[in-house]
Write a structure and sequence with these properties.
Length: 547
Amino acid sequence: MTDKISEQGAQQLDVVVVGAGFAGLYLVHKLRSLGYDVLGLEAAADVGGTWYWNRYPGARCDVESLQYSYSFSEELQQEWRWSERFAPQPEILAYLGHVADRFDLRRSFLFNTRVASARYEESANLWSIATEAGKCFSARFCIMATGNLSVGRIPEFAGLQDFAGEIYHTGNWPHEGVDFTGKRVGVVGTGSSAVQSIPPIAQQAEHLYVFQRTPHFSVPARNGPIEDQYDSEWKRNYPAQRAKARSTRSGVLYDYGTKSALEVDAGEHAVELGRRWEKGGTNFLYAYNDTLRSEASNQISADFVRERIGEIVIDPTVADKLMPKDYPIGTKRICVDTDFYATFNRPNVTLVDVRPSPITGFDQTSLKTADASYQLDAVVFATGFDAMTGALLKMDIVGRNGHSLRDKWAEGPKTYLGLAIAGFPNMFIVTGPGSPSVLSNVVIAIEQHVEWIVDCIEKMEHEGIATIEAEESAQQEWVDHVNDVACQTLYYQANSWFLGANVPGKPRIFMPYVGGFDTYVAKCDDVVRNGYAGFIKTKDQAEAIPA
């Protein structure tokens, strides 16, 4: 850590990294190993990112553990032993802690430090970063590794401040855990975190009320321990497995179907979809190559899941309420569960459909809907996140000519490749809007972004480049392309957080890139081969270098 202090009293660095999750840790490791003076700023008390905060019952990853992990160090890959097919939150957090220890990364972070603002000082070609506690830092580069699902949101319900019971959000769970034994609990939401947390909460609570507005498609995890032989096979072939994963459209080694569902008969559908259902995991969604492009094909997979719900849930009325009917499967993030649907067979669990009878608010003891009142001792909001843009827009980020990011993104996020923003020199985003991010194996996506960013910084150093920023025209072309590709799919038929639809007033724009991780990486590589096409480079404030 440098001891240099600017005239304004700010500590001067080469790079400030915001965030200490998968992205922040790898950035600090890679930059530091190349000799850069780098400092990470993290709001939490330790490393972990989203896995530090999301400690709700049942929290686990929906990508298999042996793939949801770093690949940059072969020694790390070989030494860490995952215990389960889908790792639980405590194990992922322990893994990130191990990484921090192994590479001595904590000494390059300030924890319990939330960034309030980041402002580009044009006269000095530096970023000025201020924390909520008043500390100031100055750096040539500012890299936002803030994560896509890091700002939880609780809807504004009338009277919530009057509710005398316990209030929780799955994305900010008490570290000491919560005991719901003997309590009347309400869970608001049935998305991914709710699907995971509802079964274990139901096992504790005296009674659990699940308040559902929109049912979600969920497939069984079929989770279990990783056998030694399976672990050894992966570790013998890790480099080849990783290379193969990077050549796929999701960055995950799924069993990708090569046919349309319309090319085979109903009997084969039953066999293939049944096989994938029994195997478990989101591999189910890749049975056919047009599930997210053809309504007729999508209907076949969706009907299969609805039939399974009808078989699992004993009460046909409850089963019907749990069946999604008004959007295609996969257009909202598909959930992975352990006994989610079976939980509604328990006598202490009640499903409340709040679409016909919305939640109207709270009083001191109850949650109220339009036609009923439910006495509760605790309420759990599994209501998701201000995804992909929330963490960035919480900070006061100001670029060239005093233009704020909030103003620039007033009509929706605009980036070039999800990596950079026009008018914000020397600022990079890891897995930002416009990149595959949440539609891919995010750890592999993070590694690709970190390596691209660090290589860019290295080339700037070697070529004497002072600043780099996205061209406005290239950025707009990329935003248009991201949305054009999404329009060729079924994604727009769902009011999902991919579009920002879960946040009132948030502009509706499709944020992740659905063209495929492999296609995206090829584009990023092509940009570099063409001298960083679509970027403006300057050797000083006055001299722009054409790409």
